[in-house]
Amino acid sequence: MLMYHRIISKEEAQRGVQAGMYVEPNTFDRHLRFLKKYFSIEPISEIFSTSGRNIGLSGRKTRCVLTFDDGWYDFYTNCFPILKAHEVPATVFLPTDFIGSKNSFWTDRLSFLLHRRFKQRNAETLEASGQLTVKSPLVQKLLTFRGSLESRLESAIALLKTCSNEDIEKTITELSFLWGIEVIPPSRSFLSWDEVGDMGQTGLIHFGSHTATHRILTLLKQREVEEELRKSKETLIDRKAADPSFITFSFPNGNYNEEICQMVKEAGYHLAVTTRKGWNHKEGNPFLLKRFPIHQDMTFTESMIGCRIAGLF
Question: Residue 199 has what pLDDT?
């Protein structure tokens, strides 16, 4: 099982997308040609039953599932046409509160701020402008990061992922004020429900849940986790984006524990995928399925995608 996020050009990625979040369209097309040669790419519903008995071989080829987290708009514009051309199925996990909205993830807003700040200061410092006072300890720590833009962004995101949503929003607001940079979200980051419906009707694309608000579940209270699971599932069903008899789930950021895993099962989901790297076997837990993360910088040739799937790096 492979895990993708975005299919975008190098030029678009350079505007503020993390290196591990995208694959270029030509590279993705190359991936599909390679995978079709050596694997049987099948819908997630064909491979995994609730007991996992269907995991394994399809004829003489090992089965493979393509998954995409987050439901980006570029899945519809850049990825879906390539999947159609190859007649290859895929699964997209949707953060349902973001679908059909103009909202953006906090990680993208933070990336926007850092990219603009680097342009202002020629990458020398992230310190506040003028005589403005830094109030938050989180912001103070973030401003001490050194190195390349990419390394500072990765460090900042890693730091904030341990924080509450309230603290994250306060940090982004304070950075925007300190640097004098207005966070201007793109016109649209995510799919619309009409686009979800159009793709679902082709039979190639399966949609699952990535919670409602994409918050890291291990940082939430039990009732909040239950609400995330319930709301997202109900939205998928109400929008006719998912069949109640088979609804899949992806843990945001890959974070889970035994209690949350059980809650996903009790909420009526039929399987769940993680960000743990590796192969899946029929004896495995269908609510802790592994995936190989696929990035542009480590899979842009056939030999590299082969090595990645083999677990060599």
Answer: 98
Q: Is 162 in the same domain as 260?
A: no
- How much is the mean pLDDT over the chain? 90
Q: Residue 4 is which amino acid?
A: Y
Q: What is the CATH number of the domain that holds 32?
A: 3.20.20.370
Q: Are strands 61-64 and 271-273 parallel, antiparallel or unpaired?
A: unpaired
Do the Cβ atoms of 110 and 16 come closer than 8 Å? no
Do residues 279 and 294 lie in contact, with contact meaning Cβ atoms separated by under 8 Å? no
Q: What are phi and psi of 24, to 5 degrees?
A: -75, 150
**3-class secondary structure, 91:** strand
Q: Assess whether 175 and 202 both reside in one domain.
A: no
Please report the DSSP string for 105-116 in residue order. -HHHHHHHHHHH
Domain boundary among 128, 145, 179: 179
What are the residues whose beta carbons fall under 8 Å from the beta carbon of 311, sequence distance 6 or more?
Answer: 277, 278, 279, 292
CA distances from 76 to 71, 86, 199, 282 (A): 9, 15, 8, 32
Q: What's the pTM value of the predicted model, to 2 decimals? A: 0.92
Task: Say how far apart CA 153 and CA 143 lie, in whole Å.
Answer: 11
Please state, as a whole number, how many other Cβ atoms lie within 10 Å of the Cβ of residue 211.
26
Instruction: Look at the block and give the residue holding tokens 């059909």.
Output: 100
In a domain, 184, yes or no: no
Contact 25, 82 (CB under 8 A): yes
The pLDDT value recorded for residue 129 is 56
191 contact partners, CB below 8 Å, separation of at least 6: 71, 72, 73, 75, 76, 92, 94, 99, 100
Domain that holds residue 115: 106-179
User: 152 with 146: CB under 8 angstroms?
Assistant: yes
As a whole number of angstroms, the distance between CA 136 and CA 97 comes to 29
